[in-house]
Amino acid sequence: MTNSVKADAPSPVRLHLDGEALLSNYKALSKASGAATTGAAVKANGYGVGAREVVSRLSKAGCRDFFVAHWSEAVAIADVVPADQISVLNGVGEADMPLALSLGARPMLNSPTQVVRWKQAGGGRCHVMIDSGINRLGIGPEQLGEDLLDGLDIDVLASHLASADEDVAQNGEQLEAFRQAAAGVSGERLSFANSAGIMLGRDYHFDLTRPGLSLYGGIARPEMTSIIKQVVFPQAQVLQIRKMPAGSPIGYNATYRCEAAKRVATVSLGYADGYLRGFSNSGTVEFQETAMPVIGRVSMDLVTLDADNAENLREGDWITIDYNLREASQISGLSPYELLTGLNSRFDRFWI
Amino acid sequence: MTNSVKADAPSPVRLHLDGEALLSNYKALSKASGAATTGAAVKANGYGVGAREVVSRLSKAGCRDFFVAHWSEAVAIADVVPADQISVLNGVGEADMPLALSLGARPMLNSPTQVVRWKQAGGGRCHVMIDSGINRLGIGPEQLGEDLLDGLDIDVLASHLASADEDVAQNGEQLEAFRQAAAGVSGERLSFANSAGIMLGRDYHFDLTRPGLSLYGGIARPEMTSIIKQVVFPQAQVLQIRKMPAGSPIGYNATYRCEAAKRVATVSLGYADGYLRGFSNSGTVEFQETAMPVIGRVSMDLVTLDADNAENLREGDWITIDYNLREASQISGLSPYELLTGLNSRFDRFWI
Predict the structure, then answer these.
(1) Active site residues of A
(2) CB distance A237–B96 less than 8 Å?
(3) Contact A102/B4, CB-based, under 8 Å?
(4) Mean pLDDT throughout A123-148?
(5) ipTM above 0.90, yes or no
(6) d(Cα A310, Cα A225) in Å, to the nearest integer?
(7) CB–CB of B98 and A7 under 8 A?
(8) Tens-place pLDDT, residues B49-93
(9) Residues of chain B below pLDDT 70
(10) Average pLDDT, integer, range A53-67
């Protein structure tokens, strides 16, 4: 029953990842962070980019604080950097404790329950998340009784902004709430700003900033447009090219019909790769600087292109998907975040 | 630098998978397929359900034809069933040939180029896809010259329906085109119908049907509502419960505001798990038969719930996401297909 496999299975989808753009973005965010040091959110496999390689590259650039969501994500990078440089944002549940105590990554304690759990286990150095108004995860200022945090050895006292991508009163309100809460807590470092928060100015920087999206090319606020570069370039291989006669419907439910005879290329890419149906009849790709529109509905593993203008295109060629996050977001209806984290394990990842 | 990890990292998200529902769906689709035998599309990791376990279970139920998209997906199940029961729908590119020849899974040849490649390599038994009008992938009837397929040892001669979920003329046109094309080709078996196509009746069944979506609980046509059962039940763990005062904004960009004081539960689930932002302020979950609405925007790794009615809910409890595919599709704006294939490797998978 077991078949002996003697050869690799090359993937027909790959991500070209621009290592210089990643470093440039990190440096730009560091500069914008002023006197604060700059960490990196690498949860969700480094926003889909590949956490291990991102951590390795940013570590060489001087980054010493890496933020993941789950303990499994901490394990995945724990041989790349010292574990005490890794913070687990979702904190520590009962089932996580054996791993948390043995691994040495630091939990971001998010609730009185987590604080008590960590204290009772003698967990050692940790971080604490104060909820200053996103009202999602963290210890509310009203929960900070006189002694809740006593006895904790707190490295980072953090909070998280809800609306840093907007110019709204909530930002200032959260800043004030964080300052007040922090005044009563003895943490070594204070951390508040995500990517967008960095651009809100010096008051928001404190000791440590924690960009995520913008490291990977996302424009979290308009001011960043000139300093943030695209990192992720998805590519896919052409499976078939065929000349279709005028009038031909294309793809599921015939959502496109060829007005004239048309050269149609079918590529190995689909929503199972994270290229969702929102790109149907609206996405574009490039081959040797020739643009090709997606025609018809995106299938699970296939996309069809209008290849009339790409005369040199042949079966087996690789096309590059237009994936400027802002434009792709407008086209697809997905957020830049979803566009990144949806790029899954089917993709081979190549750093250029 | 290397950290010794002595404990597992339990995942805070898991899929409960109903093995009886999967078998029941397979049997229902087999019955609806009449005299035809019934295969199974297991591409994209078994539509997110987990290809290895799906193949193992359907194999025990008598299924002998499994369809994947990529060669890597064939490798992933090649120790579960004999390789000659595995068909690779995207065919065989130049780079796939070493693996294709050693593995023994059968390519679905989709273009004259692929046909020539397979012939020249002496690849042996294969399948051939005729494009009868989806105009996406396959050999067009106009490309079937007198001798293109001569010398091929064809097991399955297949075609694929574009609009079987609709009652449109295209279905009959494709049927006629497939019949005409098949009349001139010597394949051992003919295969035409996907999940929806099975319900179009006996004319569409031929020798082998290839359901996908409906195996996993998708209602491909309204006639299936009474025979197809839900297979996939995503669950996530509660990280924190907190009483929020009246007026509190919840989550990113304050898209929800508590009218009165409210008990809010935050669970470890987000769009990085495949639960996309379309569920913001609209999805629902269950705990001990109490429904809880999603409030606020879905984050990368977190979702907030109105837990006012779930008095027994505690941190560490598991909630079940309402994931009836038809309803979840209407709520989220995603197709049932995307709802399944988006469930990624962060989930542990448990069969019940």
Answers:
(1) 43, 252
(2) no
(3) yes
(4) 94
(5) yes
(6) 31
(7) yes
(8) 999 999 999 999 999 999 999 999 999 999 999 999 999 999 999
(9) 1-7
(10) 98
CA A215, A217, A220, A222 torsion-angle sign:
positive
Query: How is residue B257 written in tokens?
Result: 């505001």
How many CB atoms are located within 10 Å of the residue B14 CB? 18
Q: For B176-221, what is each residue's pLDDT tens digit?
A: 999 999 998 999 999 999 999 999 999 999 999 999 999 999 999 9
Taking a C-beta distance cutoff of 8 angstroms, is the pair B26, B63 a contact? yes
**Nearest residue, CB atoms, B266 vs list A2, A137, A334:** A137
Subunit contact B162:A251, Cβ cutoff 8 A: yes
Contact B90 A239 (CB under 8 A): yes
Q: Which residues in chain B have their CB less than 8 angstroms from residue A82's CB?
A: 1, 3
Q: Which two tokens stand for residue B242?
A: 């907190």
Structure pTM?
Answer: 0.95
Closest partner residue to B1 among A74, A82, A300, by Cβ? A82
What is the rounded average pLDDT for all residues in chain B?
A: 96
Residues of A in contact with B133 (CB under 8 A): 249
List the helix and strand counts (H, then E) for chain B: 10, 19
What is the model's pLDDT at position B344? 87
Rounded Cα–Cα distance for residues B295 and B297 (Å)? 7
> What residue of A is the nearest CA neighbor of B337?
A300
Cα–Cα distance for residue pair A127/A69, rounded to 1 Å: 13
Nearest-CA distance B35 → chain A (Å): 27
Edge-to-edge strand order for the sheet containing B208-209? B37-38, B208-209, B187-191, B154-158, B126-129, B106-109, B86-88, B66-68, B40-41
Distance from CA of B205 to the nearest CA of A (A): 19
